[in-house]
Amino acid sequence: MKNDTYESHLLKNIFVAQVATLAKAIKAEKKAKGISTTSNCYREAMIEIIQQRDHILEMLDEIEEHY
User: Fold this and answer.
1) What DSSP designation does 13 have?
2) DSSP string of 16-67?
3) Beta-carbon neighbour count of residue 26 at 10 Å?
4) For the segment 12-63, what is each residue's pLDDT rounded down to a tens digit?
5) d(CA 45, CA 3)
6) What are the residues whose beta carbons fall under 8 Å from the beta carbon of 16, sequence distance 6 or more?
7) The model's pTM
């Protein structure tokens, strides 16, 4: 990360924070369903972000067009 710009470093930190937050939510959902896991759920969180990214950005574009 030595060659990263400030902006790149900041974006990576934001991504890490979002993954960590989503992972905690996923783990809490599992616990609420009675599913016990020792996983930190980071992989699941990253997969969900990748899978939902395009759809969410499309929705953002639609909303921005109307407001």
Assistant:
1) H
2) HHHHHHHHHHHHHHHHHTT----S--HHHHHHHHHHHHHHHHHHHHHHHHH-
3) 19
4) 999 999 999 999 999 999 999 999 999 999 999 999 999 999 999 999 999 9
5) 27
6) none
7) 0.82
Residue 19 to residue 48: CA distance in whole angstroms: 9
Please give the single-letter amino acid code of residue 25: A
Exposed e or buried b per residue across 53-63, where buried means at least 16 C-beta atoms within 10 angstroms of its C-beta: eeeeeeeeeee
Residue with tokens 């890490």: 16
CB neighbours of residue 42 within 10 Å = 16
Two tokens, residue 13: 């930190």
